[in-house]
Amino acid sequence: MKTEKKTFSPAWKHSTQPRKQRVYLYTAPLHHKQKLLHVHLAPALRQKYGKRNLQVRKGDKVRVLRGQFAKREATVERVDLLHGKIFAEGITIVKKDGTKIPCPLRAPQLMLVSLVLEDQRRKKKLESKEQKTPKKKTKP
Question: pTM higher than 0.90 for the full model?
Answer without folding.
Answer: no
